[in-house]
Amino acid sequence: MKFLLRNSTPLTAYLAACALAVPILAIGHSSQVSDNRGNNHRDVVVAYPWAFQEGERTARETVLTTVGEIGQKAGFEVISSNDASIAWESKNYPAIRYRHMPTKATLTAFARSIHASKVLYGSVSWHTRSIWVTMGPKTISTATVNAYVFDVASNKIVYRKQGVTGRSDERESIYKVAADVLVTPLVSAVSGGPATPREQRAVQIALGTAYRPWVRTISRY
Predict the structure, then answer these.
(1) H or E stretch at 165
(2) Closest of 53, 44, 14 to residue 26, by C-alpha
(3) What total of structural domains would you count in the chain?
(4) What does the alpha-carbon distance between residue 198 and residue 23 come to, in Å, rounded to a whole number?
(5) 165 falls within a domain
(6) Residue 192 has what pLDDT?
(7) Is 27 among the domain residues?
(8) Cα–Cα distance between 136 and 154 in angstroms, integer?
């Protein structure tokens, strides 16, 4: 059989077609599933939906980014939060509210609509305040996370951590544990600065701490 491309000989066209047929493999560890013919495919997760209480908009966006990084660190292909949001809204699923997590039926339908095998979802609340120390005012934020992993195939929540907290001024030993499962560095925040970076840093630490046991259990890094 001849494959003809413009300005190409039959042989070069054939070689080009073969190259196009070879799948591009992601670099690094990955979780895989097999189809009925034994072919491996990279497992896909979605880091959505998340419910919030308090928190600046940028801090809320950091939640989606951070959970996506955690899924990536665990070796999965991660669906973008923008695509996930569009898919959720297009299906008219119930509005995401704090203390009201989606049902298993909703999570299953949502995941299947975007071809994800697992859903990383949960809720976050923030408590941000200014305190007075010797050198002047200091802004501190505490994020509290309820984190879950829902497995579509088994129709079960296979991992959960509730009430995990992270403070923006955590000591080094704590934030290094959290940073172990993140891709980008923790947000820097100055003592008397604005609340937003403090909230970002606090929730990164809380999410990293919450999901670290899960990542280390299933990944091979």
Answers:
(1) strand 156-167
(2) 44
(3) 1
(4) 42
(5) yes
(6) 62
(7) no
(8) 53
Residue 167, both tokens: 């403070």
> What does the mean pLDDT of the chain come to?
81
Give me the residues of the chain with pLDDT under 70, please.
1-42, 190-193, 219-221
Strands (E), 104-153: 118-133, 136-151
Q: Residue 59: name the closest of 200, 187, 184 by CA.
A: 200
Give the pTM: 0.78
pLDDT in tens, 127-179: 999 887 777 778 899 999 999 999 999 999 999 999 999 999 988 888 888 88
- 55: its two tokens: 């928190």
What token pair was written down for 190?
A: 């100055």
User: Any idea what the CATH number is for the domain that residue 201 is in?
Assistant: 3.40.50.10610
Rounded Cα distance, 145 and 124, in Å: 5
